[in-house]
Amino acid sequence: MRHGDNFVTARMQDLLQQAIRQAGGLLPFPQFMQQVLYHPECGYYMTRRSRLGRDGDFVTAPEMTSLFGEMLTLQCVEIWQRLGQPTRFQVVEAGAGSGRLAADICQTARRFAHFYQALSYTILEISPDFQATQRQTLAAAGVDPARVCWVADLAAFEEESLEGVLLSNEFLDAFPVHWLEMTPEGLRERGVAWGEEGLTTALMPVTLPLVADCFVRAGVVLPVGMRTEVGLAAAEWMAAAAARLRRGVILTIDYGYTQQEYYSSALPEGTLTGFYRHQQLADPLLHPGEMDLTAHVNFTAVARAGVEAGLTTLGYTTQAWFLMGLGLLQRLEQLSRSQGEAALAPLRQTVLRLIMPQGMGDRFKVLVQGKGLDAEPALAGFSLHNAVQRLEGCSPPGTNHEYQKGDIDR
């Protein structure tokens, strides 16, 4: 594939050409993705630009309605109660975007006086631009600045130092992935080169820490011609996060699949894609440094990494079931009685987008793993539906995760 018409800033062009030369002419895709997204000078997430909302490249659930943050606050309150109402309860949000979710959680927490008194909020954010936006959002919402602090990465926390909730929404999907293709000669990786007409890709041997028979070892058979991804970095992050948790949960919301779904014939081209000015682009080499790159999360791999690091899998379900289990529809009905149906019509449409299968309801999944919490009774977010058994062997031995009331096997 050649891309003579892609827009590349001069600085990003120099960086990529240098990286490709240092790699011997063919740069493994995880390194390409790391450069174009996270290079401190001109990576997509590191420079000042509009990413969220109408003027950006994508919209996340917290930007759509504060009800999303309200529901997550209710889940955090329940976890705090299940932990015995500790006097300090940490909520660490990884990749907080505009800061809208943080603001909604802090504002909703005020309704629960003892919980709010215990709440300590930390935003894990590597992007200086996002950090500045988050501070502005929190200030505009009237959030006490002494209640929120920022760190760049998990290294800021000692092992087993966190008690509370480590939360992420659309975070793991932006981790670098290996871009793979099954050929008649076996599994190969797609690397990035620089040709006369710009960026191009070519097949290369699988690079460490992946091995050529990684799918065979996992019991997965890929047909010849299939392209897909392996997200080692996301699983590694989950393991590192688990090591920091003393008591509480890691709550992950993202678009993704189980391993069986991810590597099925239904996804012959994988999930790697770009978002540029609200357009979804199949070619990941377009607009390097100017376009968001993302791949769906393999929730089986992420959950397995958590279990191997000492976590118990407490729940896995769709965003729709999770939000409804927390009372989203009841909250909407309450608002319609107090404000009137006509006034709530736009909000009702937004809520439907969050929970309907053709919107975000089924595409987004919720995974909760924890330490120091019993799996039963189920947390409220999984009270209507819990499908941890679909994660294929990621539950600890001896646990029994039958479907809850209202389960629908999609």
Overview of this protein structure:
This protein has 410 residues and is α/β, with parallel strands linked by helices. The chain has 14 helices and 17 strands. The strands form 3 sheets. Strands 3, 4, 5, 6, 11, 15, 16 and 17 form an 8-stranded mixed beta sheet that branches. Strands 1, 2, 7, 8, 9 and 10 form a 6-stranded antiparallel beta sheet that branches. A 3-stranded antiparallel beta sheet has the order 13-12-14, with no helix packed on it.
Q: Please tally the helical runs, counting DSSP H or I stretches of 4 or more residues.
A: 14
Oligomer: single chain
Low-confidence stretches: 1-6, 395-410
Strand element count: 17
Helix content: 25-40%
Mean pLDDT: 90
**Biggest β-sheet strands, sense, barrel:** 8 strands, mixed
Range of strand content: 15-25%
End-to-end separation: 37 Å
Q: Label the structural class.
A: alpha/beta
Radius of gyration: 21 Å
Q: What is the overall silhouette?
A: globular
